[in-house]
Write a structure and sequence with these properties.
Blueprint (H helix, E strand, L loop, with lengths): L5 H12 L5 H7 L8 H14 L2 E6 L2 E6 L3 H17 L3 H11 L4 H17 L1
Antiparallel strand pairs: 1-2
């Protein structure tokens, strides 16, 4: 499957949350402050169909759309792609970068400690 753009990912998030939906239903579910237009939504739905991320079924005069790609599958591909493209596949520079940009909460720091302990126990 081809890469999903930021705008397309907003459409996918809407459909992962609830499906099947018509183009009009997708538009209604998107944040109104973003100023989405029905034509834009239909264009993005068609792109996602061509990429194989969605499937559509005719329902009278409209189409109902639903994901063909699980959210978890997309998240894995996106996160590994970011890791490979930006950090040469290495986790520690990624964590260092994000912790330098945004202070780690106590909860995040503890979660990282727990992951490291689990990693050490499994090794």
């Amino acid at each position: 499957m081809s890469t999903i753009s930021d705008a397309e990912s907003q459409i996918m998030r809407t459909l992962w949350a609830r499906h099947p939906l018509s183009a009009e239903d997708v538009l209604a579910a998107l944040p109104t402050e973003a100023g989405w237009q029905l034509g834009t939504v239909k264009t993005l739905l068609n792109r996602l169909l061509n990429k194989g991320a969605l499937q559509a079924e005719r329902d009278g005069r409209r189409y109902l759309y639903e994901p063909r790609v699980a959210r978890e599958q997309w998240e894995q591909g996106e996160s590994l792609g970011l890791l490979d493209r930006v950090f040469d596949g290495r986790l520690s520079p990624l964590v260092a970068h994000f912790s330098a940009q945004r202070r780690l909460s106590a909860e995040d720091a503890e979660a990282l400690r727990r992951l490291l302990r689990e990693h050490d126990d499994a090794a």
